[in-house]
Amino acid sequence: MPGRGRKKRTKSQQSPNSVSSGPDTRRPRVNGDQMTSPQNTMSQNLLPQVPPYNGQLQGQMQGQMQGGYYTPPATSQQYINQLSPGTQQNAMIDTNFQQTVLNKLEFLGNKMQKLDSIEKQLATMSQKMTHMDTRVSSLESSVREHSSKLIDLETSRTVDSQIVTDLEKTQKKESENINKMSRDYESLKRQNANLSNEILDLQFRSMRDNLLFFGFDECDSVENRKTENCTEKILNFCSDTLEITDAQTTIKIERAHRIGQYNHDKKRPIVVKFNHYPDKLTVKQQAAEKL
Fold first, then answer.
1. What is the CATH number of domain 208-290?
2. CB 75 within 8 A of CB 55
3. CA-to-CA distance for 81 and 88, rounded, in angstroms?
4. Where do the H-state alpha helices sit in 6-84?
5. 59 C-beta neighbours (distance < 10 Å), count
6. Distance of alpha carbon 35 from its chain centroid, rounded?
7. How distant is the alpha carbon of residue 173 from its chain centre?
8. 187 burial via Cβ count (<10 Å: 0-12, 13-18, 19+)
């Protein structure tokens, strides 16, 4: 038989596009873009679902689904070109849908990255808000403390104001008393001045009959000064020195005495009070003529 002379090929020598089906040793026949085996039909339904963006990964997954004996095209476009027109349209739709889904997933991935960044920012803001809450609590405590101090100060100010009011009233009364005392003092001062004038007038009136005589010798001993008769000395002076006629009888002296404190080196004057003012004038006139 002709078939007996043909050598049996090993598994490694078989066609790279052949597919093993387990116990069935028959190789499936590929006609164009379609495969007649049930495994190929399942591969046609599952292969469009493989992401077309990675040809190497697609080939590996296809090879696994076919038992490791089918080598797919290198790219998804070549794979699509090998399919029938209807299958190509479905594959193109599935490819576009997959690409849209991948774009959406990529967009969602970017959004998730942004959400992670926002989450970090929110965590930072939460920490800052916690710190701000702590500071606000501290500020509120400080404000309450200052408010309490202000209340105490207002209370103290009210008390001080009342004290100042009382002091003003007291000062006003004292000022009125001082004014009254000042008026009384002025009145007393005027009265004192009047009294002084009256006393001076009385002194002048009482002294208008007096005359001072200087240069009369004075005794050294205390006993002799006590027994000294100043009236007799003045009458003898008027009679002998001033040459007044009958001076002993015509001139009347009320009293005569020395004034001032005794001093050995000085002679104290003698003050004489005449009973009659004309006698004083006579003595003054004679003294002006004789001395």
1. 3.30.70.1820
2. yes
3. 7
4. 38-46, 55-65, 76-82
5. 18
6. 93
7. 41
8. exposed
Question: Is the Cα torsion angle 230, 232, 233, 239 positive or negative in sign?
Answer: positive
Domain residue ranges in the chain: 208-290
* Total Cβ atoms within 10 A of residue 272: 26
Which residue has 């349209």 as its token pair? Answer: 89
pLDDT, tens digit only, all 291 positions of the chain: 444 444 445 444 444 444 444 444 444 444 444 444 444 443 444 344 444 444 444 444 444 444 544 444 555 555 556 555 656 566 667 777 888 888 888 888 888 888 888 888 899 998 999 989 898 989 999 899 988 888 988 898 889 889 999 999 999 999 999 999 999 999 999 999 999 999 888 888 878 888 999 989 888 888 888 888 999 999 999 998 988 888 888 999 989 999 988 888 888 999 999 998 899 999 999 989 887
How is the beta sheet containing 210-213 ordered, strand by strand?
A: 210-213, 270-274, 253-258
CA-CA distance, 113 to 121, in Å (whole number)?
Answer: 12
Q: Is 8 exposed, middle or buried (0-12, 13-18, 19+ CB in 10 A)?
A: exposed
C-beta of residue 70 within 8 angstroms of C-beta of residue 17:
yes
